Amino acid sequence: MTQRNFTFDDLRTILREAAGLEDEVLGDDALDAAFEDLGLESLALLETG
Questions:
Q1: Is residue 2 included in any domain, yes or no?
Q2: Domain encompassing residue 18
Q3: What is the pTM of this model?
Q4: Which domain of life does this protein belong to (predicted)?
């Protein structure tokens, strides 16, 4: 069975679809940002799971 790594692009896709984030918010600098810094709350975190 082939194992695939979870990438930042995968996370961006999930956050766009589940939390409705715009592409501008999900730049490369978002990789080290807290959810709160991206304008998200704990509910958005639950929706991405």
A1: no
A2: 8-47
A3: 0.62
A4: Bacteria
